[in-house]
Amino acid sequence: EDFVKETNASIETKGKEIVNKSEEKAKSEVALVEAKATQESVVVELEQLVNYNTELHQSCDFIVKNFDLRQQARDEEVEALNQAKAILSGAKY
Q: What is the pTM for the complete model shown?
């Protein structure tokens, strides 16, 4: 009779443990799904940042590559404006 009581108590305890473990598993599965969704959004954002970085790098490369040419053109334009100003002021060339 004691054996039956102990067995029934053990069965009841094990049943509660199964329910608790099932709840923990369900919560863990929900957390896993949320973590995967978060990971996917982070990966997409990183890909967008990489693309933006590439675009900026190309733009900067273009500016640096053509800096001397643009600076020379600007200097020539300033010189031409100074000559035009001098001509309009009455200077003779």
A: 0.52
